[in-house]
Amino acid sequence: MLLIGHYSKTGCMVSGKIVPLVHGVGFTMALMSFLNCIYTMVAATDCLIFSYYSFLPGQMPWMVCDEDLKGKICFGYNEIRECQRASLAQPCLKSNSTLSVMRSLSAFHYRRDVLKEIDYADNTEHKISLFKLAFSAVSCVILALVTDLNFKSGKSSKVILIIHITMQLFVLMIVTFLSTPANNYSGQTMDSGFLDVFRVHYESLLDPQKWMYASVFVFRSMNAVSVGSSLIGSYMPRKSQADLFAVEVTLILLFLYGLGEILISTCLTSLAINMQVSKNELSVYFQDNLFVLMPQIFGMSHVPTKLLTIIFYGYLFFTNIWRAQLILSSIYETFADIKPIIHIYQFYIRTFSCILIFILSLPLYMEGYTETFLHFVRFLEINYMAIIQLIVTFSILYIYGAQKICDDHHFIYGKQPDTFYRLLLILTPALFLIYWAINYTNMSHDRWFSIFFTHPVFIGTYIITQVPHLLGILYKMLFYLKQQNMVHLLKCEDDWGDPNPQIRNERIIYHPRKENKYFRRLDTCKHDCLRYNHILPLIVAEEAMNHRLSFLLQKRNLFTKSEVGIGKSPSFDY
Predict the structure, then answer these.
(1) Which residues form a coiled coil (predicted)?
(2) φ and ψ at 522, to 5 degrees?
(3) Do residues 27 and 400 make contact, with C-beta atoms less than 8 angstroms apart?
(4) What's 522's DSSP letter?
């Protein structure tokens, strides 16, 4: 998340430049922008679904109205699919998967289980609990350190840089851990320490069935950081400062966005307990939602809860659609040869816009239309990721073939791609397709597919194909940081010379072959480089000019005014 989001000037696509396997090729940049658009559309779809639920009569879909929900919660794709096939006759809960997602991304599971166990109505004398106090203190310290280190003038020392990175990772750990579903709070009370609740979340991560939510959250966080970096970085004067500033600000925004509901609603619950609000006046158990709790605390119960919810999710929907449009416009400006793929995503945006217009114009009080559209939304909620993933993958493989990518890789690095690289290009999308196909279809119920999916050979192959990408990202990130003189643990001046443009220009003149060493590989190339032959004369001419300038500079230093007078020619012996 940090590696990719840090260098996303225009969304995720420019971060493709730091992947060495397809360095400088539009394939990776387009792929990263596709992932960005996919998860932007995921967020827009969620906001659209929640906005639609807000229009419906009755309670919100994530409010508990049935005691039968104490059983198993759907975590896997197939379990969610089975939940979707349930009857539509439930008066309150429209989707068990929606409840699971809301439990994983909000403070619902914490407040409901904890408050129910301690019976908060009988403990109104409690002050702010140690958990919330420690949690708020740690959060404030992290935000203060990150902000202070960000705006610290001058070069950072090694210790401060290490602390800086550690604080960023700690923020990500807290956000990830506290955003995973953890419904086992037995033994926890309002006075439980921060580490106790942290341990519960850590144990929940050990359950493989709950890893799906952690992975989805990481991808959405990457999307938020990349988009925030592009937006904030465009308004900063210096690019290097813009990158650092964008990362810090987006991390803080992500921290507040991921934990804002937990922090605010939990503090409001403490405030209500300290104000000795009775259980009848504060409906936390059944109407556990920030938009329900906040008006009750401040004495504004007459404010319609659904209006606040509609405004909130409507704002998020239009924001995500605007982000997707921003990414597409950046692709238009950067690439001129991937317009067919852009048309695909324009179709996505137009489709979601039509859905929004359809919702606004649909007579929701008509039961038949409502039920039909609800079926469509449920189908979209479950299958849109697989559909988009398949379409995008095949579009990429069709427009950018593996052979063309190998040729570009050969042109850039001056060597013929080996068999491992070709297999890597073909095997990576194939494994992704197999992974999604098994998860999104009924093949996972089959015994043979289950054995294949859990076989160590498949898992090992999957890991082997991903490790070069991750190592390449790390290597190129450090290389780029060192080149831009942003890593203070390494002295860039030793390898890259003085940053003064005049001195650097003279260094290029005195060492022409060092500057053109990557292009020199084309001279001895035995592969198919005929289409690049028009570049070779330009390189040779530039080298000849640089050699001539170097000779003239040396001659100027030898024949000074003291040795050769003005208007006099040097002797033949000299």
Answers:
(1) none
(2) -70, -25
(3) yes
(4) T
pLDDT recorded at residue 545: 72
Among residues 331, 376, 394, 362, which one has the least CA distance to residue 45? 376
**DSSP string of 65-87, one letter each residue:** --GGGGSPPP-SHHHHHHHHTS-
221 is in an annotated binding site: yes
* pLDDT for residue 306 is more than 60: no
For 153-196, the three-class secondary structure string (H helix, E strand, C coil) is CCCCCHHHHHHHHHHHHHHHHHHHHHCCCCCCCCCCCCCCCHHH
Residue 122 has pLDDT above 60, yes or no: no
Residue 458 has pLDDT above 50, yes or no: yes
- Residue 445 and residue 450: Cα distance in Å, rounded? 7
- C-alpha closest to that of 426 among 465, 471, 386: 465
What is the reported pLDDT for 406?
46
pLDDT of 88: 35
pTM: 0.24
Angle at alpha carbon of residue 52, lines to 50 and 56, rounded to 5°:
110
Q: What is the pLDDT of residue 461?
A: 64
Distance CA 285, CA 273 (A): 14
- pLDDT tens digits, 463-503: 555 555 545 445 545 555 555 444 444 343 344 444 455 55
Q: Give the chain's end-to-end CA distance (angstroms, integer).
A: 65
Stretch 35-60: mean pLDDT: 48
With beta carbons less than 8 A apart as the criterion, state whether 335 and 29 touch: yes
What distance in Å separates the CA atoms of residue 402 and residue 363, rounded to the nearest whole number?
A: 50
Cβ neighbours of residue 59 closer than 8 Å, sequence gap 6 or more: 65, 92, 286, 287
Instruction: Please check whether residue 132 is in contact with residue 118, taking contact to mean a CB–CB distance below 8 angstroms.
Output: no
Q: How far apart (Å, rounded) are the C-alpha atoms in residues 416 and 429?
A: 22
Q: CB 451: neighbour CB atoms within 10 A?
A: 10
Helix axes 419-440, 402-413, angle to 10 degrees: 140
Cβ 255 vs Cβ 35: under 8 Å: no
Task: Please enumerate in sequence order all residues whose Cβ is within 8 A of that of 383, keeping only pairs 6 or more positions apart, or say none.
Answer: 440
**Residue 134 pLDDT exceeds 50:** no
Q: Is the pLDDT of residue 550 over 60?
A: yes
- Which H or E element spans position 423? helix 419-440
**pLDDT class of 443 with cuts at 50, 70, 90:** low
- pLDDT digits over 69-116, tens only? 444 444 333 444 444 444 333 433 334 444 443 333 333 333 444 444
Residue bearing tokens 């403070």: 107
Residue 431 to residues 28, 93, 131, 153, 437: CA-CA distances in angstroms?
A: 17, 36, 43, 47, 10
Calculate the average pLDDT of the chain.
47
Q: DSSP letter at 123?
A: -
Whether 149 and 160 have beta carbons less than 8 Å apart is answered as yes
Which tokens sit at 516? Answer: 């053109």
CA–CA separation, 369 vs 365, rounded Å? Answer: 9
Q: In the chain, what are the domain boundaries?
A: 106-288, 497-558
Is the separation of the CB atoms in 15 and 8 below 8 Å? yes
Nearest one of 276, 294, 298 to 284, comparing CA atoms:
294
